[in-house]
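Changelog note: in this version the structure field was regenerated for every chain. One regenerated record is shown below for reference.
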Amino acid sequence: MRNKVCQVLAGASVLLALAAALFLALWPESYQGTSVTTDGRVTETSASLIEENGAEVLLWLLLPEAACLVALLASLSESTGAKVAMWLMGLLLLLFAWVSILSIGAFYLPAALALLLAALSATRRRRPA
């Protein structure tokens, strides 16, 4: 049962990270600006993250997704190495979110929390019946 909880939480972290990446990549209001022409006209502009920074920004948006996928695969095993991998991926995702908190990191905090909870549920000791 505990392994099932771990797998569900790891799967939730994958979905949360994917939702964050899609939202950040496609949200048309990521960048907003106002410019004034020489004749005094004011123009409002907006662009998505990809429109402003190019397709290479997808690499940074999908790094957390890769960490969550590694942890999901590790949740399928009950070995000690798999548990270490889950903790490592969870902590790396939390570090990524913390380092980038002022731009995109806050969107990945729910995925990091779900991944850390999955790692915790995988490593808790079972009580004897």
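Spot check on this record: The first strand starts at residue 31 and ends at 36. The chain has a mean pLDDT of 89.
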